[in-house]
Amino acid sequence: MARRPMGxxxxxxxxxxxxxxxxxxxxxxxxxxxxxxxxxxxGSDDRIRIASDLADRLGAVLIGLTGWVPGRxxxxxxxxxxxxxxxxxxxxxxxxxxxxERFRSVAGATIYPVEWRxxxxxxxxxxxxxxxxxxxxxxxxxxVPDDPYHTFDPGTVLLTAGRPVLVAPEGVTRLAAARVxxxxxxxxxxxRAVQSALPFLRVAEQVTMLxxxxxxxxxxxxxxxxxxxxxxxxxxxxxxxxxxxxxxxSVSEQLKRTARNDGADxxxxxxxxxxxxxxxxxxxxxxDLLRTTEVCCLFSS
Length: 301
Description:
Order of helices and strands: HEHEHHEHEHEEHHEHEHEEEHE
Number of domains: 2
Number of strands: 12
CATH class of the largest domain: Alpha Beta
Oligomer: single chain
Mean pLDDT: 82
Strand order of the largest sheet: 3-2-1-4-5-12-9-6-7-8
Structural class: alpha/beta
Strand content: 15-25%
């Protein structure tokens, strides 16, 4: 079956002519503020470094953020249980001040403004609420599991922040975004993710697109990728490669394997989920990427 070669060729030529006509007048998508979750976990300094470097490269304000619930303790036993509320708040405030100092120290000198925000609430609640001030939110994918005051479900942040969320795995200290893999699915979430990623895609050395679909849907998937390539071309973004793979086993494993083979350091994907009795239920791909990815992932819902 033909893949609309004439229509796609005509559209691609029109895009090239339009880009040449615009010259340098195209207005880029902007990331003017980046918020990063700061805490005492092992990955915190790495997240700060990633966010600081991105802010420096994009000319964005860097915002450090922490949330701390009164009652969250590093101590256990009678002393922690009997601590007066006012004493606890003073101690928590002092700990938040230490986090603020650490944030500024790791972020280093920058010509752009740096802000600090702290609140007495669960981290996921604080991140979702304060995300109103940011164009991009940076979080980790592996919170400490044995501290109910410290841990939060990254998926909850993805679906409640109302902003694109960059999930940074532990051990990754910089995001060059030189090679970007778009995990495409023709959904609202994937469209929003691609639009949110435009500042990264515009400066990437290589942009590849991948859709995983059943054999019966391959032609439709190829047509979708053709349309997406035209869309990106209108934003002066050249696609280096595109493919439709048949689903074999775990889709997330296929995505991660493709990212490794391509040398990708950023995966762009939609975040999929729905509510059931007030609880976020995630599809397997989003959940598995959050838990096991070795490269940064930019999600949008």
